[in-house]
Write a structure and sequence with these properties.
Largest sheet: 6 strands, mixed
Order of helices and strands: EEEHEEHEHHHEHEHEEHH
Helix content: 25-40%
Shape: globular
Oligomer: single chain
Number of helices: 9
Strand order of the largest sheet: 6-7-8-3-9-10
Structural class: alpha/beta
Bound molecules: adenosine-5'-triphosphate, magnesium ion
Distance between the termini: 36 Å
């Protein structure tokens, strides 16, 4: 979709916590349907950047636009629009423990989008089929495996029909087999639904084979940025070569 307005536009963003400068001038765009992988060592600012995109943290300089709305100067109504159209999936699944899977999936569409219970339930059942656990609608999250919980978390985000998904290390708390199940779901969001996404992950296969663009952050800067297959197969900077070696050997 070359030429289409970006879903996310990040321009020279800086972010400080007290005297700690976490983001030191980050710029990149996410085009419609594009999957951007964000890599980098612990503490380099990946989670902070995602939180800034979603308006959970305020930036100190530069500009972030989501769907053409400037996050920094968005009205409460515009901010709500950004939040409702952006799915955020974390390392820890953050499901509501006192609600069944079905209720986890339907509460936001019903309360925030005003969708009636029957339609919300129908969509939820479809989404559970989609993520491979149709039989789990009526159980509580505590009875699910980690991979199943993460698939519910993704289905819950999808129930809001997002046009942007933010994933913060969605598989790092999972065993290898479960990681694959979750990665397949994320892959299908890209390949079937064409949802734009920023994925913080060190999953090499996903980065190399599914993502369009890869960005390596280091100490608040972008150390390397390029097509995902280039960055993963043929990194240019010494920093990227060293980092990729470290995750391959991990
Ligand atoms: N709310 C906060 N208050 C103060 N410092 C913070 C806060 N959140 C993050 N930081 C600091 O900002 C830096 C970047 O943190 P961030 O969580 O974005 O890193 P990360 O790249 O996601 O790391 P990891 O790979 O370990 O998840 C770290 O030094 C962290 O301690
Ligand atoms: Mg993080």
């Amino acid at each position: 979709m070359q030429g289409a307005a970006p879903v996310v536009k990040i321009e020279n963003v800086t972010k400080r916590y007290g005297s700690l400068e976490v983001l030191k001038g980050i710029s990149f765009d996410v085009a419609p349907g594009e999957a951007v992988v964000l890599l980098g060592p612990s503490g380099c600012g990946k989670s902070t950047l995602l939180r800034c995109v979603n308006g959970l943290e305020k930036i100190n300089g530069g500009k972030i636009s989501v769907g053409g709305i400037d996050v920094g100067s968005a009205s409460p109504k515009e901010m709500l629009r950004i939040r409702l159209s952006t799915g955020f999936v974390f390392q820890q699944f953050n499901l509501f423990p006192h609600m069944t899977v079905l209720d986890n999936l339907t509460i936001a569409p019903r309360k925030l989008l005003g969708i009636d219970r029957r339609e919300a339930n129908e969509t939820a059942h479809d989404l559970l089929k989609r993520v491979g656990i149709p039989e789990k609608a009526n159980v509580y999250p505590s009875t699910l495996s980690g991979g199943q919980r993460q698939r519910v978390a993704i289905a819950r985000a999808l129930a809001m029909k997002p046009n942007l998904m933010l994933f913060d290390e969605p598989t790092s708390a999972l065993d290898p087999e479960m990681r694959e199940e979750v990665l397949n779901v994320i892959r299908s969001l890209k390949e079937v639904d064409n949802i734009a996404m920023i994925v913080v992950t060190h999953e090499i296969g996903f980065g190399r084979d599914v993502a369009d663009h890869a960005i390596l952050m280091d100490s608040g800067h972008i150390a390397e940025s390029g097509s995902a297959s280039d960055v993963f197969r043929n990194p240019q900077s010494e920093r990227a070569k060293k980092f990729l070696k470290s995750i391959i050997n991990a």
